[in-house]
Amino acid sequence: MEKLFSYGTLRSKQIQMQLFNKILTGTPDQLFAYKLKSLQIEEEFGMADYVVAVPSADSSDPIHGIAFNISTTDLAKVDIFESNAYKRVQVTLKSGTVAWVYIEN
């Protein structure tokens, strides 16, 4: 089992059902030294607004999110789901949990 820190779309139960056919379990957590930046991604019917984590010069900047428990198979599905504007990296969250997170590519 892996940990995936989500601060955006993947927290939606509707998206989880579409992507995994189940609701993920997780716990609230925080990622420090990153901040959120607006991002526009071209989708099938036009541009859509999202956010992406980017490194911050201030190590106390937090991003609030959820650390989900996720299988390696489901993690591979997320790799396909996320656009090439994102890349997956491992981070240590406030709780001390090591998790994957998608940041700006």
From TrEMBL:
Sequence ranges assigned to domain Gamma-glutamylcyclotransferase AIG2-like in this UniProt record: 4-103
InterPro entries documented for this protein: AIG2-like_dom, GGCT-like, GGCT-like_sf
Protein name as catalogued: Gamma-glutamylcyclotransferase
Organism expressing this protein natively: Flavobacterium psychroterrae
Organism placement in taxonomy: Bacteria, Pseudomonadati, Bacteroidota, Flavobacteriia, Flavobacteriales
